Amino acid sequence: MFCPECGRTDVELFEGVCKDCYLKGYQFLKIPENITVTVCKHCNAKLEGGKWQEEEIPEEEIIYRALENNIEVDELAQDEEIELEIDQMRGTIAECYVEATATVLGELMSEAHTPNVRINHTVCPDCSKKSSGYYEAVIQLRADERELDSEEIANAEEIIRRVIEKQARKDKLAYIPQIATPKEGKDYYIGSLKTARKVAGQLKEELGGTTKESPRLITEDKNTGKGLYRTWISFRLPKIHVGDFIRFNSKIARITAITGSRIQVEDLESHEDISLKWRDYDSMEMIASEKDVEKAMISSISPSWIQILDPEDYSPIDFEMNDKFKDLNIGDEIEVLKYENKIFII
C-alpha cells in the first residue's frame, strides 16, 4: 500500500496513512483543559448527574477523581499507565499535570496534559436544610397516666443519642435541631423521618411501650403541588414498671420484665410465669407497686402447708406448699402483697 503523506510503499495504512504518519499527530489520551466540579462547602458532597453523592471526601481526592472521570483512553492504546499530580492551587483552581504512557500499534508512546480543575463551592440541599433547623419528625416521649422519671428520660436519651450517631453515617438529616420540654414529657425534633422511625423502634425494643404516628400537613410544594408533611411520633412508656402488680383476666400478677414485644408477669396464685403481648396492655389494671409490699413471718411449715402471720393483725394464714416455698424455714420473713383482704406470697 502507498502512504500519500510520506510516499512509503508496501506499508499498512491506518486511516489512509502509514503507521508512522498516523502516530505523528495521534494522542491516545483525551482530557478537557478545564474541568469544573461542584462541591458542598459544608460536607464535601459532590454533584454528579444531578445527584449529590460521596460526602466527606477530602478536596484533594475530589480533584483526583474529577481528573479520572474526565480521562478518555483511545481503544488502540494498551497497557496504559497514568500518573496524576496537583501542581498548585490558585484559589479554587487546581493546576494539574497528567502524564501517561501506553503501547499503540506496537509502539511505546508517552504524552502529558495540564488540565485545570475548578472547585465550585455551594451548599447541598441537605446541608441547607440542616443549617436552617429543618426537621421532618418529632418524637414525643411520654408516660401513660403518669409523669416520666429522671431515670427513664436518661435511658431514653442514651438510646436516642446512640441511634442518631449510627444513622448519621448514612443519613445527613440524622440530627436533632431542637428539644422541647412540655409539661407532659419531652419532644425531640429530628431532621429525618426515616431516622425518627429508627429511634422510635429502638426505644420500643429496649424500653417497651407503644408508638403512634400522626402526620400533619404543613404546606404544599409549589412546584409539584404535593403536600409536605411532618410526622409526630408518640412514644409512650407504660404506666407499669417492673415490680408493679396488675390485675388482668381476673388474675393478680407481678411484672417481672418489660421488653419491646412482651410483658412478663408471675401469677401470684399459681406462681406461673406468663408472657403477655402489648395488645393486652389496655386490659391491665395496675393495683399496687413495690412500695406496697409487706413482710410476713413464717409461723409453721408442714409437708403440705406453709403458715404465715398476717402483717397487720398477726392472724395465721395457710398456703399450699409448692416448690417455691420448700427452702423456707420457720421464723423466716417473706414478702407478701395484701390486696382486697387477700394475702399473696411474692
Q: Got a strand count?
A: 26
Outline, from the CA principal axes?
A: elongated
The chain-level mean pLDDT equals: 90
Radius of gyration: 37 Å
How many structural units, i.e. domains? 3
Class per helix and strand makeup: alpha+beta
Instruction: Catalogue the unreliable spans.
Output: none
Helix count, DSSP H or I runs of 4 or more residues: 5
How would you summarize this macromolecular structure in one to three sentences?
The chain is of the alpha+beta class. Helix content is 16%, strand content 45%. The chain is built from 5 helices and 26 strands.
Describe what you observe in this structure.
With 346 residues, this protein is an alpha+beta fold. It has helices at 19-24, 59-69, 125-131, 150-167, 193-207, and strands at 13-14, 17-18, 29-30, 34-40, 46-48, 51-53, 72-73, 77-90, 93-104, 107-113, 116-122, 137-143, 178-180, 186-190, 210-220, 227-237, 245-248, 251-258, 262-267, 273-277, 285-288, 294-301, 305-309, 316-320, 333-339, 342-345. Strands 4, 5, 6, 8, 9, 10 and 11 form a seven-stranded mixed β-sheet that branches. The radius of gyration is 37 Å and the shape is elongated.
Annotate the secondary structure layout.
Blueprint: E1 13-14, E2 17-18, H1 19-24, E3 29-30, E4 34-40, E5 46-48, E6 51-53, H2 59-69, E7 72-73, E8 77-90, E9 93-104, E10 107-113, E11 116-122, H3 125-131, E12 137-143, H4 150-167, E13 178-180, E14 186-190, H5 193-207, E15 210-220, E16 227-237, E17 245-248, E18 251-258, E19 262-267, E20 273-277, E21 285-288, E22 294-301, E23 305-309, E24 316-320, E25 333-339, E26 342-345
Parallel strand pairs: 4-11, 12-16
Antiparallel strand pairs: 1-2, 3-7, 4-5, 5-6, 8-9, 9-10, 9-11, 12-14, 13-14, 15-16, 17-18, 17-21, 18-19, 19-20, 22-23, 22-25, 23-24, 25-26
